[in-house]
Amino acid sequence: MQVTAMDVYRLLPKTNCGKCDESSCMAFATKLIEKELTLDDCPQLSGDERQKLEDLLAPAVREITFGPEKNQVVVGGDEVLYRFELTYYNPTALVVDLPDDLPSEEIRKRASDIMNLKFERTGEELTLDAIALRNKSGSPEKFAEAAGTLAELNFPVVLCTFDPEAMRAALEVLGDQRPLMYAATKDNLQEMADLSISYGCPLVLFSPGDLEEMKNLTRRLRAMGLTEIILDPGTFTGEGIGDTIDNFVMIRRLAVEERDEDFRFPIMGIPALSRLSGGDPVEDNIKEATVAATLMNRYADILILGGTDIWELMPILTLRQGLYTDPRKPQTVDPGIYEFGDVDENSPVILTTNFSLTYYTVEGDLKAGDVTAYLLVLDTEGRAVDVSLAGGQLTGTAVADLIKDSGIEDRVKDRVLIIPGLAAPASGEIEDDTGWKVLVGPRDSSGIPDYLEKLASE
Amino acid sequence: EAVEALPEEEFEPPVKTYPGEVAQVKLGEGTRKPVYLGGQKALYRFEEPQPNPPVVTFDVFDIPMPGLPRPIREHFSDVMEDPGDWARKAVKEYGANMVTIHLIGTGPKVMDKSPREAANDIEEVLQAVDVPLVIGGSGDPEKDPLVLEKAAEAAEGERCLLASANLDLDYRKVARAALDHNHAVLSWAITDVNMQKTLNRYLMKEGLSREDIVMDPTTCALGYGIEFSIDVITRTRLAALKGDADLQMPMSSGTTNAWGSREAWMKKDEWGPTDYRGPLWEIVTGLTMMLSGVDIFMMLHPTSVRLLREIGETFTR
Ligand code: B12
Ligand code: SF4
């Protein structure tokens, strides 16, 4: 069920007044659909029209925001079941568990580890999104005290307790930073809903393994006026993982294909539950990562993890990066000359392609090896070295054009080009078309620093 | 209090019906314990029980494979000189459902072993284990059809999977070898649904049926384009269930590709030990392919094989 610009236009004032800086209401409608403008850009809407437009434009899965003003996490927003149909919006938020029964020094330390964890890939810094403060102590005072410690950090928090008293105590100190509340259940529904309304914080509904019950509870929450809801249908691990997947899929199908108002909310999974108490930490990490990867592949919008070891988080962060790239856009960098180190007219010239993954891998290796060189980046329409060789984007003439257009011939004395090992089959062709001498470098760009050193010493 | 009184609503699980279904392919006959792939009539188990659990096949090579990453070498260093011993260890100690014997040594730039020598290696592996085999070439488009032809002859009656037929080589020869000696064929296209359809159609024109073909839509590893594979595999499975007769075959993943990712093998202290990083990279790659619709996984590391099998079995149960 795709909304068209015409559907939107019908609800606009149709005066073409131009206050939105668009030529007409129809032009504005088109930009709204493409998410280039928002309803705020039309000052002419009445409250009623605006409400109707908001409902019309809301994505199949509602977007929910939590966390302090300057550091918000947005989850949900998806329109389709499969990424190839459009794209997925708002990468799965990754949240790490932190129990409240630790001394505040330890809480501060673990929190800062979570906030500072990063893994760099293809020019992007991949990081974690929030801390899940868990009321392990069972004491409202302890919970509130730990929440107070976290309040100093201005980092998004999920408050985890089924006890409305503890929740209230923590909201008392952290409520103005809009934490996500975890969780309402059938037993505390009214109290948690009241707290969610009075503190203006979004609420997770936990209804394990029973979507019929979940539907009825969501309807009650909605009837109470709640709009910011996240659904946790329970994360059953081990033998139960099949049921967990089924529930996630059913919720998302109902939201996207049937626009069932009770299920049009983001989904939360808790891979941390796969950790056995006292289990082998390596095995636990691996199990948790597999559950996280499974649920991320099956629509999880927010995940709570227990582990902070980088080797466990790397594949999860990488999977998220891949799943949430926009399939409509090639992943590229600008072609041309890139300089590394203090280049001069004697610096070597090396060639790569403008596929982001290729470029940033090479860039990382050049920096790590303190290389001084010119890097020529060829426009291969975002394709890797061997892909563009096979597909005909990496050719002698293309490289000759790049050499001419980039002006590299004015910057260096020698006419020597180092090409990737995988581009070896094109070396003759490149020599013929450019008139440069071509040297075939190693297959993997991590070998470039050593290769250049050897070359210099020869 | 009015809220408490809302009438309960019934919940309807969103179950769909599908006009098409995936063919079931049998691997292993004669002296092999058979394994079944595919056979799905629906996308999810809440719609229709899933007929066959995913299968993992252990990669074994006909030469000692100098390039294998250390976390794998250390499990097999005692058997790498002998493909039969290697296969036996994979089955006996690591519980492989199947073994893939890659005839890398036949590559003209590797050891240029003759098709006859390759056939001897196949006989040796068939003697050593009683699980079904995938028989892979070296990747040389000239030589692979010749090698697969001899290997197919040597494995007559054992119903192996010949890997692979693709548009860059004499796929007719491969198809004929399978037909003459009762094997199945791996139909390999590079992340392109239309290329896959074309190749499958050509193979069926040669006389193979859907029950004789497994597709390899190409596995781009985690971090190296896995999203391309997710999209293509998802589209392929959806097309099959919608009734596209050219795509109604089970799918295979060269999950081993994950070991080509530097995040899997490269020594780098701030990334933690490769002993855990590598297998996990392979598992997450395979798992993602499994969730996209893949039925059989070619894998390298014992831990990855064990865990992926365990997870796969829980998905279909
Ligand atoms: C993902 C992928 C695709 C994606 C494209 C992704 C993209 N944006 O490029 C898609 C699905 C679109 C695709 C299409 C095709 N592909 Co393709 N694809 C791959 C795959 C799986 C991974 C490529 C990748 O991302 N590599 C990662 C990047 C970082 O590697 P890289 O660019 O080579 O960079 C490394 C090195 O080259 C080196 N390096 C880079 N720069 C430099 C510079 C210097 C100086 C040095 C020294 C080193 C160096 O270091 C880098 C890091 O290791 C490979 C198989 C594989 N596992 O490698 C096949 C592969 C490259 N594809 C192949 C083919 C045949 C094709 C097609 C032609 C298929 C077809 N018939 O349509 C098309 C061509 C499309 C086109 N160009 O028009 C073949 C190529 C065979 C060959 N060598 O001839 C491969 C090898 C698969 C195979 N085994 O057959 N493909
Ligand atoms: S500001 Fe509103 S009413 Fe005016 S042209 Fe733009 S969309 Fe139409």
TrEMBL record, chain A:
EC number: 2.1.1.245
Taxonomic superkingdom: Archaea
Residues the entry annotates as binding 5-methoxybenzimidazolylcob(I)amide: 352, 358, 382-385, 445
Gene3D superfamilies, A to Z: 3.40.50.11600, Dihydropteroate synthase-like (3.20.20.20)
Assembly information from the UniProt record: Heterodimer of delta and gamma chains. The ACDS complex is made up of alpha, epsilon, beta, gamma and delta chains with a probable stoichiometry of (alpha(2)epsilon(2))(4)-beta(8)-(gamma(1)delta(1))(8).
NCBIfam families per the UniProt record, alphabetical: PRK04165.1
Function: Part of a complex that catalyzes the reversible cleavage of acetyl-CoA, allowing autotrophic growth from CO(2).
Protein name per its UniProtKB record: Acetyl-CoA decarbonylase/synthase complex subunit gamma
